[in-house]
Amino acid sequence: MNMLRKVSLLLPFAVAFSACESSPIGYEPRAEDPLDGYKGTLQQAGANTEVDWGPKQEFLLSGYTTLRDQHDKLQKEHKKLQDDNANLTLRLSGEGESLTRERTLRAQAEAEVTSLQTKRRELEARILSIGIEKAKLEQAALLAKIADLQRQLEPAQTPAVDTPAAPHGGRQ
To answer: Which range marks the domain in which residue 63 is found?
Structure first.
């Protein structure tokens, strides 16, 4: 009875299954079907299968490898450009420091030149004032000498009173 019960339970499923049309799961593709890498129900293997061909019949593997090579090349170039940029940035900062030092030294030199020019002007003014004092002293000395010479000349210039000349050797 147990067996009969099991069969009676499975009977509706069996009838339903037999009523269904069986659909062909593994069918051969028609000639107009797109290539999907299968020949019949078995997938083709190897480097030149239909899977390698894209919608425009391009060889996808060679396109991928070409793009990968270009990507690697561009990455290397990018790395090189980054290194060049780092080197140039380092040089630029070094040149900036050098420029700052040069500007500082130039400002110091200009301040020193200004100081020396001021000192030179002060010395020239002092030399000029000493020259003026020397000229005044020379003028005073010359005036004193002229006055002394005039005093010496005054007795000689006074008119001599005519006195009778004494005879030579005789008495008066």
So the answer is: 50-129
Kindly state whether residue 117 falls inside one of the protein's structural domains. Answer: yes
> Rounded to a whole number, what is the distance in angstroms from the first to the last CA of the chain?
216
Q: Note the pTM of the prediction, 2 decimals.
A: 0.39
Please say whether the beta carbons of 37 and 43 come within 8 A: yes
Render pLDDT for 58-113 as a digit per residue (tens, 0 to 9). Answer: 566 777 888 999 999 999 999 999 999 999 999 999 999 999 999 999 999 999 99
Q: Which two tokens stand for residue 166?
A: 């004494």
Dihedrals phi, psi of 38, to nearest 5 degrees: -115, 140
Round to whole Å and give the CA distance between 20 and 23. 9
Cα 119 to Cα 16, 39, 112, 125, 130, distances in angstroms = 123, 105, 10, 10, 16
**Alpha-carbon torsion 40, 45, 49, 55, what sign?**
positive
How many domains does the chain divide into? 1
